[in-house]
Amino acid sequence: MSILSGKNVLMGISAGIAAYKAPFLVRAFIKAGANVKVVMTPASKDFVTPLTLSTLSKNPVHSTFYNDEDENDLWNNHVELGLWANYFVVAPATANTLSKMASGTCDNLLLATYLSAKCPVYFAPAMDLDMYKHPSTINSFETLKTYGNVMIPATSGELASGLIGQGRLAEPEDIVRFIEADILKHLPLYGKKLLLTAGPTYEAIDPVRFIGNHSSGKMGFEIAKAAANLGAEVILVSGPTHQKAPHSLINIIPVTSAQQMYEAAHKYFNSVNIAILSAAVADFRPKDIASQKIKKKDSTLTLELEKTKDILASLGQIKSNQLLVGFALETNNELENAKGKLKKKNLDLIVLNSLQDKGAGFKGDTNKITIIDKDGAIVNYELKSKSEVAKDILNVIIKKLNA
Ligand code: CTP
User: Fold this and answer.
1) Atom in ligand 1 nearest the alpha carbon of residue 325
2) In this structure, which residue's CA is closest to atom 4 in ligand 1?
3) Average pLDDT over residues 89-97
4) Are 175 and 92 spatial neighbours (Cβ–Cβ below 8 Å)?
């Protein structure tokens, strides 16, 4: 999944021959999972048709302030378009449009939308090589950069004029990759590695039976998705679950037993900055696993159980600079028990959920948590969806990393 998935991308098209690549760019954004709307300068319609762009983006395409064709919706609202966008991408950006953007000229819908947009703006110039090098054009590039706009440089090659040099619009796939990388770079967990454990563990009794628990893995998977959306590289060690987390920054390591989870967690722990252990690890496992299916020949069956290794506590013992976060699921004396675990397991934070709270716990879609910091701070949160809870937990972690 791309970091652009679910994001609103507003494409601005100005009048250059490279506008013929705009439909490919619309498709590349759609392929990345983005919602796309297009605003054009009137002259750009000579190079690419609004019908093509509207069909590909599945949205109306606007190029004028007035909409003659729909008398119920006469006004094409540039403010609304600007506010809708999470990212505004002007591609191709001609020397004329760039100069107007730099000077604040506002004589078409694209320019008015640019002035209204509060989101990050990218511009991908395309023009002939001498225009690209002209001091006035370079001045536009530099002025726009001082506004915080990001330039996606043109590439070199044969130009429409037949001359060879810099001025070709970057390829649509490269524009998308450039923007994805730029977004990622500015995210609060960019450059951070996160180890997560999630889901239940299954402890084998014989080849067909196991001891397990009701953990759905949802809380851990929501943390993984939220962390990846904040730019972290996530190693998700997961017990058996139906959850999915298709994201280019999430690497899922499937395990079954507590011992396998222990080994995987230890394999990656030294390379990460943060570890969040949300798995519902079995505390006990059968001492001996029967090699054949156990037959029901007797009226009772006694299993001898032995303790599994406490993964969280073992990481607490070896931790150096990692921020270590544990979970505590309690039924009574919650705060004291959680504080005790925080100390005993040498954690930085512990996320407490009480089974006394309706909607909390490891089966449903919601959770109600309290986060306890080893420094003494305790924050209670309302009942929320697990995806919102994941964001709350990560916000506390980001604050702690930046403190
Ligand atoms: N945990 C772990 N390995 C285990 C058991 C628990 O990593 N073998 C982790 C869980 O992922 C969770 C935390 O320890 O982050 C707390 O688990 P919990 O079962 O609530 O606490 P325990 O320490 O096992 O204590 P108890 O069951 O007695 O409450």
Assistant:
1) 15
2) 310
3) 98
4) no
Give the whole-number percent of the chain exceeding pLDDT 90.
Answer: 89
The residues with which 372 forms a beta bridge, in sequence order, are 350, 378
Domains 8-185 and 193-402 share a fold: yes
The verdict on the CB of residue 328 being under 6 Å from ligand 1 is yes
Are the C-beta atoms of residues 150 and 121 closer than 8 Å to each other?
A: yes
Q: Is the pLDDT assigned to residue 65 strictly greater than 70?
A: yes
Whole-angstrom CA distances from 102 to 15, 149, 158, 169, 384 are 17, 10, 27, 19, 44
213 in active site:
yes
Whole-angstrom Cα distance, residue 15 to residue 93? 8
Pocket test residue of 319, 339, 341, 369 for ligand 1, highest count of atoms within 8 A of CB: 341
Q: Whose CA is nearest to atom 16 of ligand 1?
A: 328
Q: Domain 8-185 sits in which CATH superfamily? A: Flavin prenyltransferase-like (3.40.50.1950)
Give me the mean pLDDT over the 69-81 stretch. Answer: 72
Q: What is the pLDDT of residues 173-224, one digit of tens each?
A: 999 999 999 999 999 999 999 999 999 999 999 999 999 999 999 999 999 9
Task: Please count the CA atoms within 13 angstroms of the CA of 38 that sit on its side-chain side.
Answer: 32
Q: Match 């949205």 to its residue by tokens.
A: 59
Report DSSP state, residue 280.
B
DSSP per residue over 29-90, as a string?
HHHTT-EEEEEE-GGGGGTS-HHHHHHHHTS-EE-SSB-TT-TTS-B--HHHHHHH-SEEEE
How much of the chain exceeds pLDDT 70, in percent? Answer: 98
The CATH code of domain 193-402 reads 3.40.50.10300
The pair of three-digit structure tokens given for residue 81, joined into one six-digit string: 């378009």
- Closest ligand 1 atom, residue 326 Cα: 15
Which element (helix H / strand E) includes 180? helix 172-185
* Given the residues 8, 59, 77, 213, the one annotated as active site: 213
Least confident of 13-17, 150-154, 293-297: 293-297
Taking each helix axis from N to C end, the angle separating 172-185 and 22-31, rounded to the nearest 10 degrees, works out to 50
Break the chain into its structural domains and give their ranges: 8-185, 193-402
